[in-house]
Amino acid sequence: MSATTDIKAQIERALATIAEEVPALAPLKLTFSLVLRGRGDTQQFRIELPGPKISKEVATDARVTVEMPRSFFNVMADEGAHVADWREAFHYGQAKATGVPQLLKLIERVVDMHEERTRLRRSKPR
Known about the structure:
It is built from 4 helices and 5 strands, in the order αββββααβα. The chain has helices at residues 3-21, 70-78, 83-91, 101-123; strands at 30-37, 42-49, 53-55, 64-69, 96-99.
């Protein structure tokens, strides 16, 4: 298995975990760029949703760009990070998202609503 195939599998796993946890994001039609920075190396991936269709190329049509260190992405993908973990990563600056503000706000609102529903389900007395 080549390194590109391995990273594509990691990206697919990370996206599948997020889509499973927040089903409202699954049908989202979005092309985004994932930029992974390593030691003196930067890898860029074009990811098209739904799908995902992943290719190792510059996404000139991306509406959102997500950047993070490659080592950080490896840990998050291999450990099956949940949406809360990703949210924390963006909050503390380990990952950064830029792009169309309305789209970023929409994604954040969908995730917020999911987390609120999850909290309400847990807090109901039985």
